[in-house]
């Protein structure tokens, strides 16, 4: 039976370093971001992302996110594979649980969801998941 998690992520830290820059202001960067989870997921969310900025007004990114805390009353951790875009005003994207990444009481976790920026420091998330 599929369960539905919803809540927010509050930004705690952001560290970004250019990997490659080119004429015209474009760059690829690597970022490590820490979030605090609120709602149906409670805990710490650490994101490692590669971001392509073709200019200063947009980006496309992909990465892996490690979540440690509680989901659906169970403790443990898991990894999400994420992809999204920033259009200069809003961030939105999707993610899915990396198979086999669940630990503790979250072993066997499967699922996918979405995220959307509410403001520069807060994201709304969803995760539709199953625990086997």
TrEMBL record:
It comes from the Bacteria. This is DUF3224 domain-containing protein.
């Amino acid at each position: 039976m599929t369960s539905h998690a919803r809540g927010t992520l509050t930004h705690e830290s952001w560290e970004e370093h250019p990997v490659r820059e080119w004429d015209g202001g474009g760059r690829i960067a690597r970022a490590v971001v820490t979030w605090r989870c609120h709602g149906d997921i409670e805990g710490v969310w650490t994101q490692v992302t590669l971001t392509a900025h073709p200019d200063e007004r947009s980006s496309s990114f992909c990465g892996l996110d490690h979540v440690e805390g509680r989901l659906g009353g169970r403790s443990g951790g898991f990894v999400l594979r994420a992809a999204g875009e920033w259009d200069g005003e809003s961030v939105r994207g999707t993610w899915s649980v990396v198979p086999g990444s669940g630990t503790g009481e979250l072993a066997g976790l499967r699922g996918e969801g979405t995220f959307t920026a509410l403001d520069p420091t807060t994201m709304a998330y969803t995760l539709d998941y199953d625990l086997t």
